[in-house]
Structure formats: structure tokens, C-alpha cells
Amino acid sequence: MRESEHGESETRRQVDAAARAALDLANVDEAARNDALRSIAAALREHTDEILDANREDVAAAEERLEQGEYPAALVDRLRLDAGKVEDIAEMVESVAEQDDPLGDTLDARELDDGLDLYKVSVPIGVVATVFESRPDALVQIAALAAKSGNAVILKGGSEASESNRVLYDLIREATSDLPGGWAQLVEAREDVDRLLDMDDAVDLVMPRGSSEFVSYIQDNTQIPVLGHTEGVCHVFVDDAADLDVAEDVAFDAKVQYPAVCNAVETLLVHDAVADDFLPGMVERYEDAGVTLRGCERTRDIVDVDEVRDDDWDTEYGDLELSIRIVDDVYAAVDHANTHGSKHTESILTEDDDHAAVFMQGIDAASVFHNASTRFADGYRYGLGAEVGISTGKIHARGPVGLDGLTTYKYYLEGDGHLVATYSGEDATPFTHRDFDGDWTPGGSE
Amino acid sequence: MRESEHGESETRRQVDAAARAALDLANVDEAARNDALRSIAAALREHTDEILDANREDVAAAEERLEQGEYPAALVDRLRLDAGKVEDIAEMVESVAEQDDPLGDTLDARELDDGLDLYKVSVPIGVVATVFESRPDALVQIAALAAKSGNAVILKGGSEASESNRVLYDLIREATSDLPGGWAQLVEAREDVDRLLDMDDAVDLVMPRGSSEFVSYIQDNTQIPVLGHTEGVCHVFVDDAADLDVAEDVAFDAKVQYPAVCNAVETLLVHDAVADDFLPGMVERYEDAGVTLRGCERTRDIVDVDEVRDDDWDTEYGDLELSIRIVDDVYAAVDHANTHGSKHTESILTEDDDHAAVFMQGIDAASVFHNASTRFADGYRYGLGAEVGISTGKIHARGPVGLDGLTTYKYYLEGDGHLVATYSGEDATPFTHRDFDGDWTPGGSE
Questions:
Q1: Which residues on A lie below 8 Å from B442 (Cβ)?
Q2: Cβ–Cβ of A394/B125 closer than 8 Å?
Q3: Could you give the dihedral angle defined by the CA atoms of residues B420, B424, B430 and B431, in that order, rounded to the nearest 10 degrees?
Q4: Do A205 and B395 touch (CB under 8 A)?
Q5: Which of A370, B221, B262, B401 suits a disulfide with B405, CB 3.0-4.6 Å?
Q6: CB–CB of B410 and A372 under 8 A?
Q7: pLDDT tens-digit series, residues B213-233
Q8: Of A112, A375, A414, the CB nearest to B383
Q9: What's the Rg (C-alpha) of chain B?
């Protein structure tokens, strides 16, 4: 057997083992899943030295490649763990354990007829896979979210973190020996990514973690549904009916408070009628904070900034950079955001509710805000609990996604020997279709 | 420009036009969408002769190919319309108009802090495409479901129905002239299917309608999410604690009441302890109804049926055929269904609630029933209203799917100039994260 064939059958074996474990894991009760998470946290703390030793090997190898110019410095930073970071990871795992159980919720209960009751109940998706770049904490986070939500998980980390990942994976596996064996699988070879992405018969969801390019690559190379986001090109629109002091504070917060993240604003749209009043002070404040500004021609008639380049309207800077465009009205702002935005988060500043309604309903994005900073688009701030990710897709989950993004549902029908023949043909009995409050419980409901 | 390039740019133009229309259609109110549906129904009735003339051309061409052995007779039957069928289609469109509006529902409302309220509101997905085989009624049905749910739609029918489809499409377009222009697009060329399937940047969901092979082809050739089902390999398990009279009626109903559909049973699993009592009567009843039976060795020790073939356990007969297997207990039944089933619908007959719980929780399928016929797995019987389709996927929608399968959601955040800086760092204000009852309404909520 050739090496590549061996690798292929090994990946297949791992995915099949995960799929088998998923069937059992779906029925592990909440207490046992939470115990497993607490065991992971304890193991991380107990074996911090071991984790850091392995991580030092990865970092040393990465620094060597950094010197040879093969690696960006930021990547080495993301790779590096210390005792404080390991403690942060352990606390993150404990906080996942403290979340409400996403499983076993009766989402709907409906009587179809006397003694025939239908329940729609949340259950795990099955097998989720994650493919991530250098950060070793991504491995632990996704394993924790998977265990909490009863999903088996395939973990594929970057080769630059292979020593760290292997130690973390071994600790997780040992700490969760009470969960169905094989529920977590580590996949290591580069070629395994494409094999995994081909296994749409057995992997139900892929959650990539990494750069926009990386997530795009995953999206373009698999038929498995992908939960993730590539980029955030977000806008703030200062309407003619804005409170300009409020607008200045929000536009500042949306860019400067933390510019590296996907919910930071990239383009400021300003209504023509207030541009003269608004822009000079705003530009001064941005420039004092070190923001590089570029603007359209009409902007440059008012303030002294560079000319926008061809691709500025479509660029996620992820940095202290911002483009400014003057528009004629809220409709033009909506049109700009729908044309150039990434359907992530958009915000209008206005005291006019009709203008707000036009903007909020007219824009096709996961999150649309009125008089609030785009930076609020986040699972923690939304009160979703553990954040599984942010989705710029529209199917299954959109925007910040909590643990319920890792669930699907199952219909349970409890009857008494009911036949479809009774409800068909000439003398068909009618259905009652009466919704009721009630939970499905194994072995006897309502 | 070569022909194929022309076709490609034309398909692109149509999809882009649909995407633009979708932005406006999302904000067309319920009354206008329902009026458009009633106009479609009226147009179908008024132009029945025109529809039937076009349909006769399609049928004549298909009959010619039938004589040449190129077409199965069933396909010609599915293609054929008459005045009664056109009336049925018109009534179907009216019934879609009568459904509850799936848009604008506030799914969650949460105060993040004083004056900062988050709403999760149902909105259309955007652009849905349907690719369907011969039945011209599929075109009208999907267009109606799309209009109701505020989605733009790309319609690609089979070439064998091209005359019927063109007339139906023209009627729909004219009848819905009050909806945003371009909301429905007809695509005709064979090559356009693959082009459509490549446009995952602009098409949000594909709903194929046709044979299992056809749906599989679509699923295997696109990165656009697919809402559909390929096959239904459903099981009925007669437990040792079953009421055998009830079991016989349900197992009979599940196969014989309508064997051609995906929720009919294909394999009967019987607990070893009751097989001697149960099988002879059951087999006699099936055989009286003309069901062809095959069984495992242990079954054949009790009743005189043919031996199962290699692929019987994995086959959707869609006909009066059934395979029978004797199993040792409920766990073996669960294992068989998880191994050979298509995650569609499974049913256990038992008076023992613990056995029922093992079966219902252990099986990974969209619908799992206790003492009821598998034939209940259907959007109408579930009380979902208009059925968009049945999904054997687990992401976004599972099992019978109603109109809400054509929606996603949008987060609206209403603030008062709130900044993320307030909730960050040393003196961070805590979030309140208080759920409340309230609906988002354009221009002033709660």
C-alpha cells in the first residue's frame, strides 16, 4: 500500500470512528458532558509544563522559519503559549461547561390528533470538523464546544503547531475517557485536509478558523456546509438627521476601539447635508488616533485626505485605516453597503425613525444597527454565551453563532398505533394540529 | 461572442437581476405578496386553454420519444396537464397565499443594556433556485413559495416541458407585475444548470425536484446549499413488547397505503421473541395486498419468502416490495437502521417506554416515531402548512420543511449612541442581557 493510500484509509477510519461515537455521544447526558469539560480544564492546568514544552518546540521551529523569511511574525505570536494563556484556555473550557445545555430542548409540540403528538427536539448535528491555522487554543475551544453540544469532532491544526496540538489532543482524549471512545480525532497531515473536505457523506459541518484567504479556500473546496466568515467590510452611515456628537463617538468607537476585528468599520458614509459640519471634527479625531484616511472627491473638497484607491470600498483593512464617502441620501447609503459590504454588520446614525427603517430593512446583512457601534456584533455582547463563530452565510446560522449553531433537530412522533389510512381518502379524519406546551422526555411525554 | 459565452453572460445577467430584485422583494409587505399569489391563481384559470395548448406540444414531443424508447411512460404522465390539474395548481397557489406570513417574526428580543435592544427577526434568504424534472406544476409551486417568503427565484425546468414552462412563467411574470421586476427568472438551456450551480456567490439555496439520481447529481455538483432529499429507506421495528395487532396495522399502513413515496417503509425489523407469532399473519396480509417479500435466513425459517439479495437492506423500493429481518433486540434494530437507513423516518412498535426511548434517541434520523406509521412524515400532516420539501440533510432544515425553511434571520440592534468602549476594559459596564417579549417594528420598537 502506498503512503498516500495508507493516509487516506487512516483518515477514513478516523472519520468513521467519529461518526460511530457521535451516535452514542448524542445520548450522553448533560452532567457527563459537563464533567468531561471540567476534566479537560483540570488536565490543562495539571499538565501546563508539558504543554509549554511542546509549544516551545513549535515556536523554535517557527522562529527559525521566521528568520528565513518564510513566516510572518504575527503567526509566531499567535502560536506562542505561556502559563497565563493556558489558564485562560482552561477557564474558557469551564465557561463552556457552565452554559445552558443546547440539547433536548422541545422547540415545538403539536397535537396532530387525539393521542398523536409531534415534538421537535434539539439534537447534535453529528460530526463537526475544524481546520485551523496556528493558534493551538482553537483546538481546545472547538473540542469543548463540540463536547458541550454532543458532537463528535475532527481536529486538523496547522503543521506549525503540531507538537502543541498533539499534547493538547492527548490531554483532551485522556480527560474525556468517560465519553464514547473516538469522539475526538486529531488529523495531522497536510493532505488530510482535502480528504476531509471530500467526506461530505460523514462530516456534517466544517468550522474553519484562520485568515480570510484560509476560510475562502475551505469554502471553495468542499460540499460540506461551512460555518465561518471570510471578511467584514462594515459601514457606518451618518444620516442628515443624525445627532452629530453621537455620530462622532460611534464612528470613532467602531474604528478605533479595536481595529483588527471583523466588526470594525471600514467605510464611513456621510450624508451630503451634514458633511461640512461633521467631517472636519471627525477627521481630526481619527487622525489624532493615528487612523489613515482616504476619501471620495466630495470628501476631499471638505477635508484634506488622500484619494480613495480602486479597491478601497471593498477592502477589509483590519487596521487603523478608513475610507470616507459622501452620499446623497439613505438610499444611496443602502445601495453602497449592499454593493460593497460583506453582509456582516452595518450601522446608521440618525434621529429619524423613517430613515432608520429604510436603512435597516433595505440592507442585506446579518446585523443592522441603529445608533450603535458595529463592534457590538459579537456572540458575547449579544448574550449568546459561548461563541461558536460568526457566519456571513445565510443558511443554518447567521451572524454571531452560539452553541445552538451546533445543533439540529429531530421530530419525535408519539402515537397509539395511528395509521395514515385513517386520515386519507373519502372519510378522512381531519387533523387537529393544536400546538401545546409540553416537553418530549424519553419514555413518556406530556 | 461564441454561443456558450453568450449563454453564460445571459444566465449571469438573470441571476444578478434576481439578486437586485431580492433586496426590494424582502420589503414588500404581506398583503402585496398575497395579492400577487392570487393574481397568479386567477391568471392560471383565465389562461387554462393556452397552458393546455403548450402542454400538448410538450406531450406530443415526449410521446414521440416514448415510441422511440427514449422516455419512460411515467415521465410522459407526469408531464401531462389537463383542466383539472390546472385548477389544482391554482388552488395550491391560493393555499400558499393563505399561510401565515413567514417574514417579520421577532424570534428573540433581548435588552443588552439600558436603551440597547437586540431583535432577531425572520427575513427572506434572498435568491433561491429550483431545478426540476418534467412536472410543470413544480415551476408554479416553487414560484409561489418564493413569492410568499419574499425570495427571488430562478426556475430551471426540464427541456421536455419547455413549452408548458414558458407559458406558465410568462403568466406568473405578468400576474406579479406589482412585485419588483426580475424577481422570477426562467432559465432554459441544459448548460445553464451547471452555470447556475456554479453561482454560489449569488444563489443562496437550490431546491431540486426530481428523482433520487437527479437530486444526488445536484448535491454533488454545487457548493450552494441544497434543500432536498435523495431517498427514503425507512424502517418499522416490531419490538418484543409490541401490541402485535397494532404492529400489524401500522406495518401494513406504512407499506401499502401509498408505496411510491419516500416515507413508505422498505424494511420490517422484527424482534426474535415475537417473530413466530407475528410473521405468519403479517406475511399473509402483505401477500394478499400484492407485496413482494424477501427475508433474512431467520425469517425464512418461519415464513416462506425469497432470500434477501445483497442490496436489499439499502434499497428504496418505492413499490409493493419489502424486506424482512429478524433482530435480537432494540439495540440491533437501532444499529440496522443507523447502518442502512437514509436518516428519513423510522418507527418502533412497542408498549415498553424504555425500549421506545432507546430506539428514538439512538436513531439518527429526521423523524423517529413510536406506535405510528412512517407515512405521517409529511409537511401537511405535521401541520407545517405549505411544504417546501423534505430534507435529509441536517443543516438549516431537517425532515418536512415549511415556509420557514425559505427564511433566515437578521439581527436588529436599536441603541442610543452606545459604544463598545463603555463595555470594555477596567471599568467595563456589565451587560444586562435580559430577554423580553417585544416585536421589532420598522421605525420605533417595543
A1: 353, 356-357, 360-361
A2: yes
A3: 30
A4: yes
A5: B401
A6: no
A7: 888 888 888 888 899 877 889
A8: A112
A9: 26
Cα dihedral sign for B216, B219, B222, B226?
A: positive
Contact, B248 vs B262, CB < 8 A?
A: no
The pLDDT value given to residue B446:
43
Residue A443 has pLDDT above 80, yes or no: no
Q: Which candidate, A126, A143, A131, places its Cα nearest to that of A203?
A: A126
* Residue of A366, A410, A419 with shortest CB distance to B249: A419
Query: Residue A6: what pLDDT?
Result: 61
**The three three-digit cell numbers of residue A387, written as one number:** 461563541
Kindly identify which residue of chain B lies nearest to residue A245, measuring between CA atoms.
Answer: B417
pLDDT confidence of residue B444: 58
B223 to A220: CB separation less than 8 angstroms, yes or no: yes
Whether the predicted pLDDT of B3 surpasses 60: no
β-strand pairing of A152-156 with A184-187: parallel
Q: Within a 13 Å sphere around the CA of B28, how many CA atoms are in the beta-carbon half?
A: 27
Closest chain B C-alpha to A42 CA, distance in angstroms: 28
Phi and psi, residue A342, nearest 5°: -110, 20
- Which cell numbers in the block locate residue B207? 431546491
**Residue A396 main-chain phi, psi, to 5 deg:** 75, -55
Nearest-CA neighbor of A44 among A83, A80, A98?
A83
Residue B380 and residue B401: Cα distance in Å, rounded? 10
Q: Give the CA angle between residues B130, B135, B140 to the nearest 5°.
A: 55
* Full set of structural domains in chain B with CATH: 3-106+122-220 (3.40.605.10), 234-376 (3.40.309.10)
Query: Which chain B residues touch A356 with a CB distance below 8 Å?
Result: 442-443
Helix H or strand E encompassing B225: none
**Best of A221, A255, A380, A395 to disrupt the B interface by mutation (most B CBs within 10 Å)?**
A395
The per-residue pLDDT for range B337-365, each reduced to its tens digit, is: 999 999 999 999 999 999 999 999 999 99
Interface probe with B: pick from A376, A407, A409, most Cβ of B within 10 Å:
A376
**In this complex, how many residue pairs, one in chain A and one in chain B, have their CB atoms less than 8 Å apart?**
229
pTM, entire model:
0.91
> With contacts defined as CB-CB under 8 Å, which chain B residues touch A376?
112, 116, 413, 415, 418, 420
Cell output for A432 = 387537529
Tell me whether residues B419 and A118 touch, CB distance under 8 A: no
Q: What is the pLDDT of residue A255?
A: 97
Q: How far is B72 from chain A (nearest CA, A)?
A: 29
**What DSSP string runs through A402-420?**
-GGGGEEEEEEEEEEEE-G
Residues A130-162 have pLDDT tens digits of: 998 878 888 999 999 999 999 999 999 888 899
**Mutation for B interface: A108, A330, A381, A420, most B CBs within 10 A:** A420
Predicted confidence (pLDDT) per residue in A221-263, tens digit: 888 889 987 788 999 999 999 999 999 999 999 999 999 889 9
Q: Which residues of B fall within a CB distance of 8 Å from A236?
A: none
Contacts of B143 (CB under 8 A, 6+ apart): B40, B153, B155, B172, B184
Phi, psi angle pair for B295, to nearest 5°: -140, 165
CB distance A118–B410 less than 8 Å? Answer: no
Residue B425 C-alpha cell reads as 476594559
Best B360, B416, B432 residue to mutate vs chain A (most A CBs within 10 Å): B360
Note the pLDDT tens digit of each residue in A338-378: 999 999 999 999 999 999 999 999 999 999 999 999 999 99
**From CA A194, how far away is CA A380, in angstroms rounded?**
32
Round to whole Å and give the CA distance between B208 and B128.
11
Q: What is the pLDDT of residues B101-113, one digit of tens each?
A: 999 999 999 999 9
Between β-strands A106-113 and A116-124, what pairing exists: parallel, antiparallel or unpaired?
antiparallel
